[in-house]
UniProtKB/TrEMBL annotation:
Family statement drawn from the similarity comment of this UniProt entry: Belongs to the peptidase C26 family.
Stored Pfam families: GATase (PF00117)
Keywords: Cytoplasm, Hydrolase
InterPro entries named in the record: ChyE-like (IPR044992), Class_I_gatase-like (IPR029062), GATASE (IPR017926)
Tagged with keyword Hydrolase: yes
Any one of the GO CC terms: cytosol
Domain Glutamine amidotransferase: start-end pairs: 21-192
Protein name, entry field: Glutamine amidotransferase domain-containing protein
Organism: Salix dunnii
Localization annotation: Cytoplasm, Cytosol
Gene Ontology process terms (BP): glucosinolate metabolic process
GO MF annotation: an example: peptidase activity
Associated pathway: Secondary metabolite biosynthesis
Length: 241
């Protein structure tokens, strides 16, 4: 019997920098989640590359990445992804959604996403776990963990059978779960501070954020660290537990 098999549904185009330094975002996720004896594959869904129906059954779990696109958009690949996620849900496949992945999962299951009223949240954010997290998780976690965030959209309304697992000062739904097989995380447990600062510069170049905000982010990030090991443990435990 072979080891477990996982697929990353890549929703972002890799920048040259991330490709060179980390072998793309797929490499970033593999570095965080992969363990010996497992097989990890990637489907570039953003480019229209999707698993065939008979391939779906060969995987134990799926990870949906972040994206520059809006989860409330109706691009062809996004509509195709929504259908795939509903299929994975009905097959009770483990699905971990990160940032855009968290939002698109919510939408696929009947929730609502959109622009955050509070605007961009970029930097290292403190996430507070809800009471239901303590009942749900077998991993001992502190009451709060810090995570890298980079988003301006959010989950506005949970799907019917979902519950909130965590919140922050800026975002009411930082994490949610649906049954025992689906979990969404608004933050980026997989990011290093280096990736975040690279993204800040890209957003600045494209005029998505102002100089003053970029400087503020860089100052705030200096001297603080996200709880990457704790998040890694939490994500692995969910995906493989």
């Amino acid at each position: 019997m072979g080891g477990k098999r996982f697929a990353v549904l890549l929703c972002a185009e890799d920048s040259e920098y991330v490709t060179k330094m980390y072998k793309g975002y797929f490499g970033v996720f593999v570095r965080m989640l992969a363990e010996e004896g497992e097989t990890w594959s990637v489907y570039r869904v953003v480019s229209g590359e999707f698993p065939e129906d008979d391939e779906i059954d060969t995987f134990d779990g799926f990870v949906i990445t972040g994206s520059c696109n809006d989860a409330h958009g109706n691009d062809v690949w996004i509509c195709k992804l929504l259908n795939l996620l509903r299929k994975l849900d009905s097959n009770k496949k483990k699905i971990l959604g990160i940032c855009f992945g968290h939002q698109i999962l919510c939408r696929a299951l009947g929730g609502k996403t959109g622009r955050a009223i509070s605007g961009w949240d970029i930097g290292i954010t403190t996430i507070n776990f809800s009471a239901s997290w303590k009942l749900y998780s077998s991993v001992k976690t502190p009451a709060a963990l810090s995570v890298i965030e980079c988003h301006r959209d959010e989950v506005k309304e949970l799907p019917p059978r979902a519950e909130v697992l965590a919140w922050s000062d800026k975002t009411g739904i930082e994490m949610f779960r649906c049954g025992d097989h689906i979990m969404g995380i608004q933050g980026h447990p997989e990011y290093t501070k280096d990736i975040l600062l690279h993204l800040v510069n890209r957003l600045l170049q494209r005029n998505f954020i102002a100089d003053s905000y970029a400087e503020e982010i860089k100052a705030n990030v200096e001297g603080t660290e996200p709880d990457r090991e704790a998040w890694k443990k939490l994500c692995i435990n969910f995906l493989k537990g």
